[in-house]
């Protein structure tokens, strides 16, 4: 059984320390079980693989109807998280978590927590979601918004045109933010 801890910074974010089983043939790791997250009655409906070159930053994105679960299978990433839930009591609080293929972490990201990652090396991320992709439920906030206080430790990442156009948090109307 993995060790699952709730973030002390952003409630509802869970960090999973996965337990690999290794022998002379290699290793096996169970990376997800629905019952590890009883706080959400969910079914994985879609799984995605994201491959990024070093220096690529993806996000920040958030959803009103989708939970994410992430696991790095190659390389190293720096994950940025920001609580955008209006009613959370931690609105605007941010956290950075480094993840790699070596540390064997899973990351549960609840609805309303903006998330993105910077590839510190060439990296491959697997992520599981509980809703099919719906462009109408994908919102963004600027990765470099100084009000978010995310320390990416990079000034000029490679970002998509869509992410480059994400607004600052102060420019997002409150009704566009999750409860």
Notes on the protein architecture:
The chain is globular. The protein is built from one helix and 13 strands. The protein is mainly β. The chain has one helix spanning 161-164, and strands at residues 3-6, 14-17, 21-23, 26-28, 46-52, 57-62, 68-74, 76-83, 94-100, 105-109, 113-119, 123-129, 139-140. 32% of the residues are buried. The mean pLDDT is 94. The strands form three sheets. Strands 1-2-10-7-12-5 form a six-stranded antiparallel β-sheet, with no helix packed on it. A five-stranded antiparallel β-sheet has the order 9-8-11-6-13, with no helix packed on it. A hairpin with a 2-residue loop joins strand 3 (21-23) and strand 4.
Main features:
six-stranded antiparallel sheet; 179 residues; single chain; mainly beta
Reconstruct the topology from this structure.
Blueprint: E1 3-6, E2 14-17, E3 21-23, E4 26-28, E5 46-52, E6 57-62, E7 68-74, E8 76-83, E9 94-100, E10 105-109, E11 113-119, E12 123-129, E13 139-140, H1 161-164
Antiparallel strand pairs: 1-2, 2-10, 3-4, 5-12, 6-11, 6-13, 7-10, 7-12, 8-9, 8-11
């Amino acid at each position: 059984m993995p060790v699952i801890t709730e973030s002390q910074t952003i409630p509802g974010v869970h960090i999973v320390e996965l337990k690999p089983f290794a022998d002379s043939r290699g290793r096996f790791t169970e990376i997800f079980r629905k019952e590890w997250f009883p706080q959400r009655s969910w079914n994985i409906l879609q799984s995605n693989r994201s491959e990024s070159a070093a220096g690529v930053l993806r996000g920040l994105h958030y959803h009103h109807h989708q939970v994410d679960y992430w696991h790095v299978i190659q390389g190293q990433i720096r994950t940025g998280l920001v609580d955008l839930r209006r009613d959370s009591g931690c609105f605007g609080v941010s956290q950075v978590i480094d993840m790699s293929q070596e540390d064997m972490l899973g990351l549960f990201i609840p609805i309303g927590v903006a998330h993105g990652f910077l590839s510190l090396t060439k990296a491959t991320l697997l992520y599981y979601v509980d809703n099919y992709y719906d462009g109408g439920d994908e919102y963004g906030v600027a990765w470099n918004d100084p009000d978010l206080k995310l320390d990416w430790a990079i000034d000029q990442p490679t970002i998509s045109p869509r992410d480059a156009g994400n607004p600052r948090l102060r420019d997002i109307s409150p009704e566009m933010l999750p409860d």
